[in-house]
Amino acid sequence: MAVPLNSVAVAAGSLIVTGYATTFVAAEGDLFVLDGFVALIASRDSASQLTLRHAWSGPSRTEATAWEIAPFGPYWRSTSTTNRQLSALLARFSAGPVKFDAVGTLAERSAQNGQGKGFTYLAIDPEPWQIFVKLANTNSASDWSSGQSLQVRVELTAEAQAARDAAASSAATAGSGAAIATDKAAIAVQAAADAQAAAAQAVAGAVPALVLAKPTAPIAAEIPAGTVRFVRVAGGRPSLWFNDGGTLVDLFNPGTF
């Protein structure tokens, strides 16, 4: 018989709860409930394994599907979660190059007015975060330096400005190259159009058209020097002929006669 989906197994006296095709959603302090027995969860190891805080006091069970996880742990309390995350963030921040002696909101800074010169205060509300330094010790708000923001816009750094300028230059170069290519293409298209128009004009200007009665090429005397004429040779196909100083050139069919 196949193991039921979303079922669990736990042995009496064990700390491990194993799931089959489960997606455990749990955190430290939550409750695992099965057959009326309740156990405190120490950790969620994976989507299919939990570790209990204490050994399972109920009987051994396999393929059990009537189980629950009650989200009673502190992780699900938003204030507790926020404080924990903020504490972890501040711990990492304090280990960095910028040190501070106290942290709080900007409004709470006044409680530190009596601190000595050199005392630093990190204000984390409102954003951006700011750090203040006591420049004197007169127990006054005027003792504090102006706030130094710890969130700097990327584009204000010299490196970012250089990168931005380089990117802008590259974009301009690419744009110029594209414009040149476009211009060249336009010129080529115009040249083709001009050539087509010239050919049409040459054909239209071939008046009168020479139609030779005999199936031979025209002779120079029949086409004025330096001109192009449309000639239809009897029994042949039409062509453009050019009198190049007494030499006829068939423009449609390469070769001279």
From TrEMBL:
This is Uncharacterized protein.
